[in-house]
Task: inverse folding
């Protein structure tokens, strides 16, 4: 995998968001048996990054579940999802060294970029240029 292509400003903003979510979830995962979390935060964990870009691809069943989560998010972007502690720990362990396929990554990256741009619509320095992001995502092999 050519992970150098992921090392740019627009994609980097997405990776920063992923790392922030990981840090937050690492600190709260042991507090409850079941946590209610924004779907977008769970999706961000699956984002391909320079650490897991060369890692093994998740199983087809796991990718199928991620795609279902994408569809749920598209239908209800403000909803939370309940996730058991053991499942969240599993995702947190694997998101650092395993990855999803290129197409699913592109779907998640574009959803995260849209979310980011709505969140920071008044701050152009934190806005992701979708056209440049798509160029980057198309170069991932």
Result:
């Amino acid at each position: 995998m050519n992970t150098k292509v992921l090392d740019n400003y627009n994609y980097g903003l997405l990776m920063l968001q992923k790392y922030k979510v990981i840090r937050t979830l690492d600190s709260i995962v042991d507090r409850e048996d079941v946590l209610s979390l924004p779907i977008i935060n769970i999706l961000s964990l699956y984002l391909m990054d320079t650490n897991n870009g060369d890692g093994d691809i998740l199983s087809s069943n796991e990718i199928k579940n991620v795609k279902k989560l994408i569809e749920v998010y598209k239908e209800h972007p403000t909803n939370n999802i309940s996730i058991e502690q053991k499942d969240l720990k599993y995702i947190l362990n694997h998101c650092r060294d395993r990855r999803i396929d290129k197409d699913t990554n592109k779907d998640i990256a574009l959803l995260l970029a849209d979310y980011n741009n709505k969140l920071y619509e008044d701050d152009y320095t934190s806005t992701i240029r979708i056209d440049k992001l798509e160029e980057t995502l198309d170069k991932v092999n």
Remarks:
- Residues 9-28 form the longest helix (20 residues).
- The chain has a mean pLDDT of 92.
- The beta strands are 34-38, 80-84.
- The first strand starts at residue 34 and ends at 38.
